[in-house]
Amino acid sequence: MDELVIETKELRKIYKMGEVEVQALTGVSIKIRRGEVLAIMGPSGSGKSTLMNLLGCLDRPTSGDYILDGQLVSKMSDDQLAIVRNRKVGFVFQSFNLLPRATALSNVEMPLRYAGVRRGQTERAKAALAAVGLADRMHHRPTELSGGQQQRVAVARALINNPAILMADEPTGNLDSKSGKEIIDLILHLNQEFGTTIIIVTHDSSVSGQTQRVIRLRDGQLEEE
User: Fold this and answer.
1) Which terminal Cβ of the chain has fewer Cβ within 10 Å, N or C?
2) What pairing do the DSSP bridges indicate for beta strands 63-68 and 4-17?
3) Would you say the pTM of this structure is higher than 0.85?
């Protein structure tokens, strides 16, 4: 049996808005194998973002279990989740989320600083930028880079701690079609090269069509797998 990197059991998430309860997820159970490339799809309000936040350890479920890389993380404190998130999860967002005044190199080094890594920090960041084709742009700030190049910096930053999973939330949403294809090709290449587990939240069927499996959500429930 293939090794599981993610397993969720009846994940539920309820948000309270005043006296109203909104059930964002209503019992989602999934299994994701190590090295798998997976897409999460669904209409607006289906629970995609909520599920991504839970899988990325940005939030905790109201009930249910979440096991990430062998650890039960669903019952952890905020501080414990922050540590797991920094060590186990890499994020790539639609809006890049780079520090505008920092160079590409400094942006990529940041997760290492948070993790308390001192030795070899700059060398690792340089290697990560080289891996995404930006060895000649490491001293440029985000405003001096194209959208595609900024997203490559974000990918390098996401991979710097060798995470168990890379989560990409609409990674091509702010890019033209050519740059978007390059980013998806890069992410898929990293999966083939390093075996990184990839989870992509997307509305784009041309993106999901390149993944190994698609999970569809509707009204907070798993529609099909």
Assistant:
1) N
2) antiparallel
3) yes
